[in-house]
Design goal:
Residues 1-14 have a biased composition (Basic and acidic residues). The protein has a single domain (104-430), classed as Methylamine Dehydrogenase, Chain H, CATH 2.130.10.10. It is built from 3 helices and 30 strands. The protein has helices spanning 27-37, 69-77, 83-97, and strands at 52-54, 101-107, 114-119, 126-131, 136-140, 148-150, 159-164, 171-176, 180-185, 190-196, 204-210, 215-220, 224-229, 234-239, 245-250, 257-262, 266-271, 283-286, 291-296, 302-307, 311-316, 325-328, 343-344, 350-354, 372-376, 382-386, 397-400, 406-411, 414-420, 429-430. Helix 2 (69-77) runs antiparallel to helix 3 (83-97).
Length: 431
């Protein structure tokens, strides 16, 4: 007998609690519990003592006809299911698994807030985190080995960008308020300085690296963008924005395509081969507020932008001038908070972003929780919210590892590692 399809509903499903320490339940059980609890969805005023919030089944506006991944794979093998439908079924299964995500590892190694985060490209349990004081933690949380801690200069040394070297993953690039962009090893040795301002009035705010083109790109607080090759030779240094360049991103599939975000309220798309000055952009995407980030999707076909107030946008490579979707979401800017940046899931069309409740936001309710929100990248619908009452602060940075099964978050001084309950059978670990 074919599996029973869950009933469709247009009403937003209320959010059930996910008690800690219990077995993982089926989607049908979760749906029945949600109906019984009748708790409000995202933005609820109710306080929770659970490890996560789940806004799952009914928020999936287009339900896959396959309730079983095995069945979906079988149908695809027989040629009866298209690849997008199979992907949708896999994504649904992943969303159901988020109900059992908990914090299993945590660290608070810095004396100032964490400011940047990067996963190791080949070790799914290893990440690097930088702080406002210039400290860097290299942490493999699946081993009992002591993490590597690289001491920074303190005040004025904030790590603004962090990337592992794709050509040698025992090295990493950093940009900082110290006024440099450099390559370092795991012992903290500086292997090469790519840019150095020589003054405390000019610093570098972002960086990205391409293995294919073998280039490093970095942006500063004056609107300049610098392109260099891996040997440190400067290819060009141009003022492309009127104000600080908050984010630079190379397209993962077309690494000659560059996106830059700025507090001048624009995101610009560039062809690295044809940059001649500030007017040589391919597209300029105006925003209503300064922009914190612009990230290409893993397939390079879409661009995700996060402003400094309440808007997340998704653009398509087929039509840069017009966003595919606008997501209203509170994540306002605050001087003493690491800027909130939305990111893509590495395998699914999902957007992950921290919530900073705003009383002036249209849907704000009393006692709104500071959750991690997961949106569908196509519909813009809220799919899931993660929350742990022990760590109820504002979570600025969230990024899934390359495998897509573990989430790292930055909340003030804290680094939090979320994983599925079955995958983290050990007790919570703290360093």
């Amino acid at each position: 007998m074919a599996p029973r399809k869950p009933p469709e509903t247009k009403k937003t499903l209320e959010v059930p609690k996910c008690p800690k320490g219990k077995r993982s339940r089926s989607p049908q059980e979760l749906e029945q519990e949600a109906k019984k609890l009748f708790v409000k969805g995202p933005g609820s005023s109710r306080r929770y003592d659970s490890g996560c919030l789940w806004a799952g089944l009914a928020n999936l506006q287009v339900l896959s006809p396959y309730t079983s991944i095995v069945r979906a794979l079988h149908q695809h093998k027989l040629g009866k299911a298209a690849w997008p439908m199979l992907q949708q079924s896999l994504q649904q299964s992943f969303l159901h698994s988020l109900a059992s995500y908990r914090i299993f590892h945590k660290a608070a190694p810095f004396d100032r807030r964490a400011t940047s985060l990067a996963w190791h490209p080949t070790h799914p349990s290893t990440l690097a985190v930088g702080s406002k004081g210039g400290d860097i933690l290299l942490w493999n949380f699946n081993t009992k080995d002591k993490p590597t801690f690289i001491k920074g200069i303190g005040a004025g040394g904030s790590i603004t960008g962090l990337k592992f070297n794709p050509l040698n993953t025992n090295q990493f690039f950093t940009s900082s308020m110290e006024g440099t962009t450099r390559l370092q090893d795991f012992k903290g040795n500086t292997l090469r300085v790519f840019t150095s301002s020589g003054t405390c009035n000019l610093w570098f705010c972002s960086l990205d690296v391409s293995a294919g083109s073998r280039v490093v790109v970095t942006g500063d607080n004056a609107g300049q963008v610098v392109l260099l090759n891996m040997d440190g030779k400067e290819l060009w240094n141009l003022r492309l924005h009127k104000k600080k360049v908050t984010h630079v991103a190379l397209n993962p599939c077309c690494d000659w395509l560059l996106a830059t975000a700025s507090v001048d309220q624009t995101v610009k798309i560039w062809d690295l081969r044809q940059v001649r000055g500030k007017s040589s952009f391919l597209s300029s995407l105006p925003h209503r507020h300064p922009v914190n980030a612009a990230c290409f999707s893993p397939d390079g076909a879409r661009l995700l932008t996060t402003d400094q107030n309440s808007e997340i946008r998704v653009y398509s490579a087929s039509q840069w001038d017009c966003p595919l979707g606008l997501i209203s979401h509170p994540h306002r800017h605050f001087q003493h908070l690491t800027p909130i940046k939305a990111t893509w899931h590495p395998r699914y069309n999902l957007i992950v972003v921290g919530r900073y409740p705003d009383p002036n936001f249209k849907s704000c309710t009393p006692h709104e929780l500071r959750t991690i929100d997961v949106f569908d990248g196509s519909s813009g619908n809220m799919m899931c919210q993660l929350y742990d009452p022990e760590y109820s602060g504002i979570i600025s940075l969230n990024e899934f590892n390359p495998v897509g099964d573990t989430l790292a978050s930055v909340m003030g001084y804290h680094i939090l590692i979320w994983s599925q309950e079955e995958a983290g059978l050990r007790k919570r670990e703290t360093i």
